[in-house]
Amino acid sequence: MDVLKDDTYFMRKALEQAELAFEADEVPVGAIIVQNDEIIARAYNQVELLKDATAHAEIIALTTAFAAMGAKYLPDATLYVTLEPCLMCAGALYWSKIGRIVYGASDEKNGYSRYGLEQYPFHPKTILTKGVLADEAAFLMKSFFKSKR
Questions:
Q1: Secondary structure element (H or E) that encloses residue 82, with its range
Q2: Average pLDDT value for residue range 79-83
Q3: pTM confidence score
């Protein structure tokens, strides 16, 4: 039986990565990059592990995808990430020329949208889809930070 590979399917794969981050005591953000219905990169936040403030899931996924594809641009790929990208990740995604970005939960504290940018922060050809499995992604984040209090 073929599995329907839609945005929900792939976001669940990104959520699996976020759960790995949670288990590693990292902020639970997961990301995957898909091209031609195949996952070419998987990543989760590794800021604490690597002692690197730039080790966000999106950055690690991009680096992995560039290596896998042997390319510096990803115009035919889609990033699925559980949380709205921050400004740093938005910049990296801009330069990757990624074809599509799909994210789950909004991030009122650190997401790119909190800055009220007058200009779209991604490449002009990048298509953006928001809110896929947002409740599940938000629940994971809330659970993580609740465990820290």
A1: strand 77-83
A2: 98
A3: 0.95
Q: What is the arithmetic mean of pLDDT over 5-12?
A: 96
CATH number for the domain including 131?
Answer: 3.40.140.10
Q: Summarize the annotated binding site as residue ranges.
A: 56, 86, 89
116 lies in some domain: no
**Catalytic residue numbers?**
58
Residue set of the binding site for Zn(2+)? 56, 86, 89
How many angstroms separate the CA atoms of 72 and 96, rounded?
A: 6
Identify the domain containing residue 61 by its residue range. Answer: 7-109+124-148
Q: Is residue 35 part of a domain?
A: yes
